[in-house]
Amino acid sequence: MGDFQTLPADLPAPVDDGACAHLTGQRWPALPLPGTDGQQHDVSAWPGRSVVYAYPKTARPDHAMPDDWDMLPGARGCTPQSCAFRNHHAELAAAGARVVGLSVQDTAYQQEAAARLHLPFALLSDADMALAQALALPTFEAGGETLLCRVTLIVRDGVIEHVFYPVFPPDRNAQDVLAWLSAHPA
């Protein structure tokens, strides 16, 4: 198993294919999702600002990642991205935003990552892809799975206010979100 805490220098960058151009201004669907904290989370009902970072799949020490994972633009970097949101969690909260991660892995898979990485926020599971379909989030295929492309959404009072897509490098995403929040106070 490789080191998924750091990013290789030659990681291919994803391109903006326009797959998220429709999201700004869209209402978040009322779809409660299970979280690693044992709660159901309905982002559409949350007041104020929320940061929802969608990611493909976190690496686990006991599971191999799909072949050529590092060669798929935008695939590699879920662990460094999650760790960056963990490291900047207090600053994001001080900026008035709650944080959650989102992937299509089931909650049990996500709980391992949340515990191992000591995440102070929930990871939400869209295992049936109902949210991905409702928002028409971009996906890709790897290792026989349909996975979410990496995108970070700022949701304000149930409406998508800003979209970060493509997200690259993923370990800088939390800092980019903080900079945007500072430039756009609520």
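(ticket continues) Second input and output from the same batch:
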Amino acid sequence: MLDDLPIRKIIHVDMDAFYASVAQMDNPELKGKPIAVGGGGTRGVISAASYEARKFGVKSAMSGRLAIKLCPDLIFVRTDFARYTEISKKVRHIFYDYTDLVEPLSLDEAYLDVTENKKGNPSASLIAQEIRQRIFNDIGLTASAGISINKFIAKVASDYNKPNGQKTVNPEEVLQFLEDLDIRKFYGVGKVTAEKMYQKGIFTGKDLKAKSLEYLDENFGKSGRYYYYIVRGIHNSEVKPNRIRKSLAAERTFSKNLSSEIFMLEKLDHIADEVAKRLHKSKVAGKTVTLKIKYSDFTLQTRSKTLPYFISDKHIILDTAKDLLYQEKLNNSVRLLGISLSNLNTEISKNKAQKIKEKPVSVQLKFEF
């Protein structure tokens, strides 16, 4: 089946423990020490952890309280998104020296299509190595990379030799690589889905490949078709240099649970202000306002309202959020509130990048990676 597909040379670059590494770079006293970005206090949630902290089991999305139990010497540092954005732009400037086909996924990772590149280098592996070296020399941070024939395999491969390493999966190695892969390593298979697959005897790519399309559709819904094709190395998504933003949001976790709507309104005012600032900075507006409520028992509720016109004004966002807050009685005291704006007015532009016009290349042919 792979024989009929065009071969692309895709690199997935992933910065190593980006937020934590930036903090250690800016403060040499933190180098070699276990640090957590965010998560300070008893209610905070960690955004990132250094590799020294990860050895103790500290990881992102973990509460600061649990993290300090796992690692008593853990050092908490504040998030600094302005600094992360500054560094991210420098990294991307390096990417653009090699190709214009760069698709950022976040501040710390991106896909690059180097099938045809500005350096005229036929080896995607050597390009990835050169990019990683330049990031280290010019910026002072390390990055890992995955290199293969499509975005899915490149992303999976980038996690193999972290930190500060890379892995290439050549065309003739793809099928065996996927068959041997633990199902938990498949990008798009979350914890809940992995447990469900385990219950059905699916532990590796080989087990997944043995299931029919009908079986996967029946047991995993719309995702079944995705699993069926990716385990066969088929993922035709091109690197899209102009990713379309679908929503914009801000939220706050409180040091003490809130039980009064009056106090919540004060918090929503600050959150709406942050959302409006981000909208103006991104030069977008939206129609759908969503209020996110996380209760003290950690249950999550969302309430949405779609307006007949695009908005970006703080006061309209806040008024709509207020309406949603009073829409129905709260189930419990509240530990987190968030506001997001979706259904944005971003125009869906056609991908202007020139498509690769090569004839399909057999995976048995020599194709330098």
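Agent notes: Residues 247-344 form a domain with the Dna Ligase; domain 1 fold (CATH 3.30.1490.100). Confidence is low (pLDDT under 50) at residues 347-366. Closing as not reproducible unless the customer responds.
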